Amino acid sequence: MMAAAQHISPPGTMARIMVLLERERKTRFSGGMLGYLWAFIIPSAWIALVFALFWVLERTPPIYVGAEVFIATGVLPYLFFRQTVTSLSRTLSANRYMRYFSSVSPNDILSASMLLESFNVLMTSVLIFGMVTVAFGSPLPASMPGVLFGLGLSWLLGCGIGRFVATAGLLSDTFARAVPLILRPLFWLSGIFYTAAELPGAVQDILWYSPFLHVTEIIRESYFLGFKSPVATVWYPLAIAAMFYLASIPLERFAHNRRLMRGRL
How far is residue 107's CA from residue 113's CA, in Å, rounded to a whole number? Predict the structure, then answer.
């Protein structure tokens, strides 16, 4: 007698995400060790560039800390946010053929990209802050958990906004191409060059609505002993991240249904 064929169920959600994460990792870091180093070189180059700008303009940090660590606490959260948004905005188009498998959903693809970025945030921040500490003799963070929490907030903002951008890109290629242009002004709104305390009252009130300023101030509160921000709140960047993430869910369903009606799925 022939053995009864066993039904093989598709892998669970987490298993699919881990397979996609491994695929994304190999694609992103296809150059081997050089690919991993590139993820470290880019933020280092940004910090060096802003440090040179401080030197040329004879700018000193508004608090009694080294310029290199002051800049790092501003540049890294912005770069992590930007990289997460950029990665998510491209991942659905880069993995468009994977969406033809019934067991793979856009959410699986996006979740894998989010997880990969979380590992990148953790490893890069440890390496950069470690390098700054060793090279410049900067003191260690007053609260390492607080610094990691602040960097996690920048990642969550990137996940929420990036997921919205990715799903909106399914409806409009023009919108997806415009995202890098939209992100550029945020560099000046994230507190890289200043603290909220040194801003005039009217400007401070306006920039309060920038979640990136909150994130930078939260990180600096945790990194620099005695530094207190007049604006930093945790709930605001969390609310912005959640708002965009939740808005992306019905948008994804709408894009999926429209593709169904057009016979693309």
Answer: 10
Neighbours of 156 (CB within 10 A): 22
Q: Which residues contact 107 (CB under 8 A, 6 or more apart)?
A: 252
Helix (H, G, I), strand (E, B) or coil at 65: coil
**Residues in Cβ contact with 158 at an 8 Å cutoff, skipping those fewer than 6 apart:** 80, 81, 82, 83, 84, 85, 88, 117
Q: Which residue has the higher pLDDT, 30 or 20?
A: 20
Dist CA 78 CA 84 (whole Å): 10
User: Nearest to residue 214, comparing CAs of 194, 231, 193, 195?
Assistant: 231
How many domains does the structure of the chain reveal?
Answer: 1
> pTM for the full model?
0.86
| C-beta atoms surrounding 175 within 10 Å | 14
Residue 5 lies in a domain: no
Neighbours of 29 (CB within 10 A): 17
The whole domain housing 52 covers 14-24+32-260
Q: What is the pLDDT of residues 172-185, one digit of tens each?
A: 777 777 787 888 88
State the residue for tokens 């890069």: 124
Q: Of 244, 241, 206, 221, which Cα lies nearest the Cα of 80?
A: 241
213: Cβ–Cβ under 8 A, 6 or more apart, which residues?
A: 189, 190, 191, 196, 207, 231
Does residue 8 lie in a domain region?
Answer: no
Alpha-carbon span 26 to 10, nearest angstrom: 23
